[in-house]
Amino acid sequence: MAIPRCAKLLLPAALALLASRADAGTVRMIGVQLAVDTAVYASSAAFARRLDEAVTAGLATLDRKPGEQIIVVLPEHIGTFLAFVGEDPKVLAAPSRAAVVAKAFLGNGALFRYHLASVLRSRSWKAFQTYYALTSLLRYKAAAMWKIYTETGSALAARHRVILVAGSISSPRPEEMDLPLAPVYGTSAVFGPDGSLLGIVRKLHPVMEETLFLTPAPAEELRPVETPAGRLGVLICSDSWYPDVYERLKDSDFLAAPSLGEGGLEVFGKTVKAFDGKSFEEGSGPGPTVRDTWFQNGLVGRIAATRARGGVQPFLTGRLWDMETGGPGVSLLRRGEEFKLTVVESIKGSDTFVTLSAPLRRARN
Q1: What gap in Å lies between CA 6 and CA 8, rounded to an integer?
Q2: I need a labelling partner for 179 at 20 to 30 A (CA). Which of 41, 290, 337, 353 fits?
Q3: Pairing mode, if any, of strands 328-335 and 338-345?
Q4: SS3 helix, strand, coil % of the chain, rounded to 5?
Q5: Which residues does 19 contact at the CB level (< 8 Å), separation at least 6?
Q6: How far apart are alpha carbons 309 and 323 in whole angstroms?
Q7: DSSP class of 172
Q8: Domain harbouring 343, CATH code
Q9: What is the pLDDT of residues 191-233, one digit of tens each?
Q10: Cα 332 from Cα 335, distance rounded (Å)
Q11: Count of domains in the chain?
């Protein structure tokens, strides 16, 4: 049957309208629960190699098809420990975080003088605490750390053709790195499949221990990052506990929550006596666990306050000096008004992965 001329004229516009409303391909999210030890931070090459191994293994679990957009999410603080790259092996062999910071200072006269100048400027007794020394170390090495972190993230995203949420690093703003007392922020960089930097997200709500070396970022800076897979909201670990963060990210298509659970899975099984929205007070006997409270007050319990179609929360895994890390990684996929929850517990010494798959809806003008 012949198509009327008027219909022929309207056909391209109709097809374009249908295309604008249709899903185009698939978005896969994969949270990489990266297994680390101090050897990962022996050199920039060791760091890049460990990340590439983990991402390669994670992508191998997917049946990747042409046209799919892949969002890879790495854990919190993977870049923070770049502060020790280039140090003497004896420094990395220190038994604790306090000892490794002390050894780094003892072996570097320029760093010690830099810290002493910071102490004199701050005029605060807190300047003599280990965490203030860590802040000086992070400032002193900021440019070198940022270079390794961003170059590794960019190369990783481009090599695997993925959108990469590169965990996080503790860093001043690039334009403030030369300032004597520059604020240090929990910072996450997002890279596109071509390796380009799509956005930078800074942590609004550091936990109590982090406030000794991290500055809370201004809330007005937080917004979704525009990516080829849609709007991506990044909540760095404890930011996932706060309703104001979800309000600012409510129009996100997907949420990524790179995380670190100090104490490892053992901590998540402990009873919670109280939770004030900022920290857990451990109790004893029967009652809700840290895991229960984390799920209720974090991404699992709050994602429904947004329009997101899914989200993942991976945890750093392993042992770094005297710190054991791990946690119950999650993926959440919207099913109408509900979310399908998948939990993957971290395993010591092994990379594990939390994944989801959702239709891709590209934004249209």
Answers
A1: 5
A2: 41
A3: antiparallel
A4: 40, 25, 35
A5: none
A6: 34
A7: -
A8: 3.60.110.10
A9: 999 999 999 999 999 998 899 899 999 999 999 999 999 999 9
A10: 9
A11: 1
Q: Is 9 helix (H, G, I), strand (E, B) or coil?
A: helix
Is beta strand 272-275 parallel, antiparallel or unpaired with respect to 317-320?
unpaired
Sign of the Cα torsion 90, 93, 99, 104 reads positive
> Among 337, 275, 285, which Cα is nearest to 306's?
337
d(CA 346, CA 65): 27
Q: Which domain holds residue 170?
A: 33-60+67-85+142-358
262, two tokens: 């100090």
In a domain, 113, yes or no: no
The tokens describing 191, both together, are: 């890279």
The amino acid occupying position 87 is E
Helix (H) / strand (E) element for 291: namely helix 290-297
CB atoms within 10 A of CB 282: 11
Amino acid at 223: R
What's at 188, amino acid-wise?
Answer: S
Q: Which two tokens stand for residue 122?
A: 């701050």
Which residue do the tokens 């709500």 mark? 205
Token pair belonging to 10: 């309207």
Could you tell me the sign of the dihedral formed by the alpha carbons of 240, 245, 247, 248, in that order? negative
Residue 285 lies in a domain: yes
Q: Is 168 a domain residue?
A: yes
* Pairing label, strands 254-256, 310-313: parallel
**Entry pTM:** 0.90
Q: Which two tokens stand for residue 28?
A: 């896969």
Distance CA 319, CA 297 (A): 26
Residues 317-346: tens digit of each pLDDT: 999 999 999 999 999 999 999 999 999 999
**CA gap 129, 325 in Å, rounded:** 23
Q: Is 215 within the bounds of a domain?
A: yes
